[in-house]
Amino acid sequence: MAPSKxxxxxxxxxxxxxxxxxxxxxxxxxxxxxxxxxxxxVLGHFELFKPDVYLCFVDSIxxxxxxxxxxxxxxxLYNDAPIFVVADEETYDELExxxxxxxxxxxxxxxxxxxxxxxxxxxxxxxERAAQAxxxxxxxxxxxxxxxKAAANQKTPFNKQQEDQTPKRSAIWETWENEIKPIDTxxxxxxxxxxxxxxxKTDSEKIAAEAAKPDETKAQPADSGSGKKHILIVxxxxxxxKMLKSALEEEYxxxxxxxxxxxxxxxxxxxxxxxxxxxxxxxxxGADIFRKLKANEKTEKIPVCFLxxxxxxxxxxxxxxxxxxxxxxxxxxxxxxxxxxxxxTH
Length: 346
Prior knowledge:
Blueprint: E1 7-13, H1 16-25, E2 30-35, H2 39-48, E3 53-58, H3 64-73, E4 83-87, H4 89-97, E5 105-108, H5 113-153, H6 157-164, H7 171-179, H8 200-211, H9 215-218, E6 230-234, H10 238-248, E7 253-257, H11 263-269, E8 274-278, H12 286-295, E9 304-308, H13 313-321, E10 326-329, H14 334-344
Parallel strand pairs: 1-2, 1-3, 3-4, 4-5, 6-7, 6-8, 8-9, 9-10
């Protein structure tokens, strides 16, 4: 059964009986063209015929055809076609011991034409699959870069609503516009390379220790003594926690939690300047934690910045209806996050 695609095979060899035998028996699979070992002939055929494979039949390690392979690889007319060399036993052994980088595959004679056809076809199909896989990988990489670029350049939903507003604006939007603090998106400071984040276990142990103290100790919020603003980050994604802590800990005292179970107790024991809260978490959601903080007179005034990966209008309105002090969309832009923290702590 003839294949759906015929490959172009350029053949070089002084033994014309072998060359013609291959051309005759492979015409169902390949479109073949023979060339001489004249250098200009070889280059001319590469320019016009554009072979998918260059097949060379040689009988000596000193063959002119072999000596041309390195020069061919470096010529501008060469199209990266794999170079197959079919050699007698002596030449094959020499090439096995001293391989030439320009030669893709070396095959020892005798070999039947059918087997040679299979070897060439399998090699070309494997190259095509590898090239397709690489192209798909590159396409995914570029798509991801575009997605990140679009997310980084995406305007806040508040500003986007200003552009798309209708004559009648909802009460939610009016309230949000009056109460939200503007975020200065000018970078505060160039982010230095991330330092290894402290283990999350350390924060959990500190929180557990604070929870175990007597009530009279908890009643008085305490600063760390470092003079830095204190940030509490709550997110169920440990990778996000490590990333944010590493990026912020040089400028702030940072505490991280993977859920909201200890948030209220911690805030009763420690003075916190800003809470950065993931909106969508299993168990207690960011909305649940936010409502509890606002219901407690000791925590109601702590600024809260939501981090969320949601982007549809309905969910955005849901976030805004809670009236947080600020929120940012994931993936997180560190400059915008630092600007938001600076804005909320001043």
